[in-house]
Amino acid sequence: MAIEALDLRALNQPETPGLDAFLRFFGSVCAISSVALVAVVPDGLIWNVWVRLSADIEGDQDRLYIALQRYRSSVPPNERPDVDLHVVFPDEDEAAFPAAATIHFARE
């Protein structure tokens, strides 16, 4: 099976299913009450999504991975960027979250 690499410039075009799916995923992540910070760090064709939790609330980690699974199953892989989810828990050192990452969401 051959899969073409996703041209990320295509995400700037109207009616892009990959962008719509990613924004739904991003919104789902930000809606989780224990999510304190979210950063997206592109690495080639992979988008590393870094999430810092402010509390260890039962079920919230599962909700993050369910949102990721929904994202991955909603659009064919060749029409969306691949996302790797990195979860940093409240008891982890500040250095666990990449210092150079641009924060795209911060709960106030």
Looking at this protein, list some descriptive labels.
108 residues; alpha+beta; GMP Synthetase, Chain A, domain 3; 2 helices; 26% strand; globular
List the helices and strands and how they pair.
Blueprint: H1 17-30, E1 35-43, E2 46-53, H2 60-74, E3 82-88, E4 103-106
Parallel strand pairs: 2-3
Antiparallel strand pairs: 1-2, 1-4
Helix pairs in contact: 1-2
What's the short version?
27% of the residues lie in helices and 26% in strands. The chain has helices spanning 17-30, 60-74; strands at residues 35-43, 46-53, 82-88, 103-106.
Any idea of the CATH topology? GMP Synthetase, Chain A, domain 3
Q: Write down how many β-strands occur, each being a DSSP E stretch of 2 or more residues.
A: 4
Structural category? alpha+beta
- Low-confidence segments, ≥5 residues, pLDDT <50? none
Helix-residue proportion: 25-40%
Tally the structural domains. 1
Number of distinct helices: 2
What is the CA-atom radius of gyration, in angstroms?
Answer: 14 Å
Cross-sheet strand order for the largest sheet: 3-2-1-4
Shape: globular
Biggest beta sheet attributes:
4 strands, mixed
CATH class (first level) name: Alpha Beta
Distance between the termini: 46 Å
Percent of residues in β-strands: 25-35%
Q: Specify the CATH architecture.
A: 2-Layer Sandwich
What is the mean predicted local confidence, pLDDT? 88
